[in-house]
Write a structure and sequence with these properties.
With about 150 residues, the chain is of the alpha/beta class. The protein contains 3 helices and 6 strands. Strands 3-2-1-6-5-4 form a 6-stranded mixed sheet, covered by helices on one side. The radius of gyration is 16 Å and the shape is elongated. The chain starts with 7 loop residues before the first helix and ends with a strand.
Length: about 150
């Protein structure tokens, strides 16, 4: 497999998913942790959505130097069900990692669950008497039972 330079246009489709008003899980960030959470929730058949502040996935790998490589053998840095291309070196570089994440997103059809270029404001509803005490995720108004904050601080 030949790796090509990635851009936001070939990392995701131009069509943004339509948003519901409520999800069981909301994931903040579409780096490796957010992608992993999306995969696990897909396998568990849970309702979720991923919000990413950038125009692409990959998290901190986007900030890495072009010469950066995975410092762990790729066999220990693998997403469930998604293999690296056979010609991928033991320590994949930035471009190979970003391409791998994109492959996982396509394999699990996560694009339908990701919205890019979004800043999110999160508030816990604090009604102690409420049986259904949910998180409020402010875009317009969106509610969730659980928040997975997969963003580096």
């Amino acid at each position: 497999m030949e790796f090509k330079k990635l851009s936001s246009k070939n990392l995701r489709s131009l069509k943004e998913p339509s948003l519901k008003k409520e999800y069981e899980y909301v994931i903040i960030g579409c780096g490796v942790s957010g992608i992993t959470a999306g995969i696990e929730l897909t396998l568990a058949n849970k309702s979720f959505h991923i919000f990413e502040k950038r125009d692409t996935n990959g998290g901190c790998w986007n900030d890495a130097l072009e010469t950066s490589e995975l410092q762990t053998d790729k066999q220990f840095y693998k997403l469930y069900g998604v293999d690296y291309p056979s010609n991928t070196p033991t320590f994949p570089n930035k471009l190979e990692m970003l391409t791998y994440f994109n492959t996982a997103i396509k394999y699990y059809k996560l694009d339908a669950h990701i919205t890019y270029n979004v800043n999110v404001d999160i508030n816990k509803k604090t009604d102690d008497n409420a049986i259904d005490n949910k998180w409020e995720v402010k875009l317009d108004t969106l509610n969730s039972n659980h928040i997975i904050y997969s963003n580096h601080i």
